[in-house]
Sequence to fold (314 residues):
Amino acid sequence: MIRRKVLVTGGAGFLGSHLCERLLDDGCDVICVDNFFTGRKENIAHLIDNPYFEMLRHDVTFSLYLEVEEIYNLACPASPVHYQFDPVQTTKTSVHGAINMLGLARRTKAKIFQASTSEVYGDPEIHPQTEDYRGNVNPIGPRACYDEGKRCAETLFFDYHRQHGLNIRVARIFNTYGPRMHPNDGRVVSNFIVQALKGEPITIYGDGSQTRSFCYVDDMVSAFMKLMAAPDAVTGPINLGNPGEFQIRELAEKVIEKTGGGSKLIFRPLPEDDPRQRQPNIAQARDKLGWEPTVPLDEGLDRTIAYFRRLLAD
Ligand code: NAD
Ligand code: UDP
Fold:
């Protein structure tokens, strides 16, 4: 059997580790690259003995020379707490990382996927968000290192496509959750579950009326693979996410109910530039990829709670 050689940057992270696993199941030869900033060895420990899996500690802001046929570029911290920890490094990871991976794709003629984000829409005035909406991003705020870094990466992908004929796939990922999120990740789903399981108060930023749409990780990884396998004309950018929209306060109440804990809600100031609302329009994903999410929030939360229960018990 001839195996496709696939590179996954950020492969030891939350989404990357699930993707590596699914690509191995699909018969690929997988090279995982990560600098372990937010990724963890535990996420990929079960893959290390697989002869078709290779792990390389490397920072994508530096050049990389490998022979591959497909590249999934996921390297970048995704949680606001982590991407704001060293904002200059976040922009470098998005921009220099994209340049390095696009250079690698150009040399090896590999197909390349970019993990872009709903953050390119900033605090959106259009609801739900469609791909033709150009966004409302504050270029100098605390989220800009991530938002503008990802926007610039999209620009680079499309310029390499037009200028050098690269085969590109750009996915705009909306909030995704599931097992293997870092317990101190700082994102809302993991924060609320860990707080509830520890019996600590649940921290709601603002009044909790802001909305997000949450997609379970297995659905998201299926979408990545469908986008990579789609005809070459399907470059994206394409929204990937679950259109079910929930207020943050509603999410907190669901988590308390499901964990059976007695946590109270406490309210903290809303972080600067925190988007008020977010919901993907996924008509393009349905039409061009034949994809839509299948795991409802209730079921995904149950699976994620079970994961964190095991993790915290260890
Ligand atoms: P994550 O933080 O768990 O994973 C990111 C991985 O990239 C980590 O393993 C980290 O160590 C690695 N990394 C960071 N900087 C690096 C560098 N310079 N060189 C090499 N590796 C580096 O986050 P995630 O949720 O798995 O996100 C994966 C990708 O998907 C990111 O690009 C993120 O922007 C994008 N995304 C995720 C979501 C989501 O809700 N999970 C939403 C939108 C976009
Ligand atoms: N949030 C919250 N409490 C927390 C963590 C996050 O109320 O402990 C809110 C946050 O202000 C935002 C939403 O939950 O409105 C989603 O935050 P997250 O960091 O998960 O991702 P974002 O979509 O903002 O990038």
